[in-house]
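Person: I keep going back and forth on a fold encoding question. Show me how you would write down a chain together with its backbone fold. Please set it down just below, with no commentary around it:
Helper:
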Amino acid sequence: MSAGVLFVHSCPPVLCPHVEWAVAAELGTRARLEWTDQVCAPGQLRAEINWRGRPGTAGRLAAALRGWTMLRYEVTEDPSPGLDGERYAVTPSLGLFRSPMSANGDVLVGEDRLRSLLATSVGPQLAQGLDALLGSAWDAELEPYREAGEGAPVTWLHQVV
């Protein structure tokens, strides 16, 4: 089993039931999220749930929500035996970012990607390339939404296996 968190940072109220249905379909259990106002985006709601499920559930949750381009969300999956953790971040303006994650939450960048960047970049291109590999643009866009959610209620869901 694996575990992780789904953070829906901003969602139009009309989509909330659809998000719950998509999460429930993936986890095989009822998903009733506790929606609260997103102070960074008036008229939008936010919610987060901790989940337990099969390895790869984070990717399946991210894919299930990807069709709604007005959502801002992140899905994380903790490392499990033999597997790195992972993080998916999605924003309306940037789309999807995926990265492996270490046990302490650091983004992991593969050796081949670093070697390619070093071989093809000079000067400021190197810094821009590193920012792209680390998902800095997604972090910059999502940070105000993350801060607005501190202290929000959390729901636990367990996948039916």
